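seq as requested:
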Amino acid sequence: MTGYIIRRLLALPFMLVGISLLLFLLLFIRPGNAAFANIASIGDFGAQEEIFEEKFGLNRPWYVQYLDWLGNAARGDFGDSLTPP
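C-alpha cells:
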C-alpha cells in the first residue's frame, strides 16, 4: 500500500504538467484570441491589437507562452485578468 501511494505521489507532478499542457494547447488552437475578444467592442483593430498582444505576450510562440506561464504558476503568479473590470 505504501509503494502504491509513493508511486502515485511521484506521478502527480507529471500528470499536472501534462493536463496543464493539454488545456493550454486547447485554448491556444481555438479560433480568435483574447486581443480580438477585448478589442471587438472598441472597433479599432489595427494598432490596438498589436499593443494588446505585445503587452500580454500573445505574439510569442505557444511553447514560450506555456513555459512562461508554467514558471509564473509555480511561483503562484497566474497573471493579469484579460477581462475588463
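The chain has a mean pLDDT of 82.
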